[in-house]
Amino acid sequence: MRKELHNTKVTVRLRKSAYRNEWYLYIESYPVYTAGKSEPQRVREYLNRIVTTVVWDKTRTARTTSSSKSYKPKRDLNGVIQCKSEVDQEACIYADEVRKLRQRE
């Protein structure tokens, strides 16, 4: 069973770990239409990669609550998430390469 992709955008995103100061890299595809469902689905594929040194873009707020603010990650010209650590940066580059493959499917 193959997924139909109509104008599907594939992006690399971060999910905060509940227990540590680290973020999981995952790929999100939307809209993905599957057989038997009338509504488009949001498909997440986790890459088993963790980053801890993300550079946050202080000019782009993601969420604001009464007690705190969260920010979106800073990205380079190619859309790759920026990190301070070289190992974390390689994980983000890997995630972007996987994203390119999924975008062409």
UniProtKB/TrEMBL annotation:
Q: Where is the Arm DNA-binding domain?
A: 27-105
Name of the protein this chain belongs to: Arm DNA-binding domain-containing protein
> What InterPro entries does the annotation carry?
Arm-DNA-bind_5
Recorded source organism is Porphyromonas gingivalis F0570
Question: Pfam families recorded for this chain?
Answer: Arm-DNA-bind_5
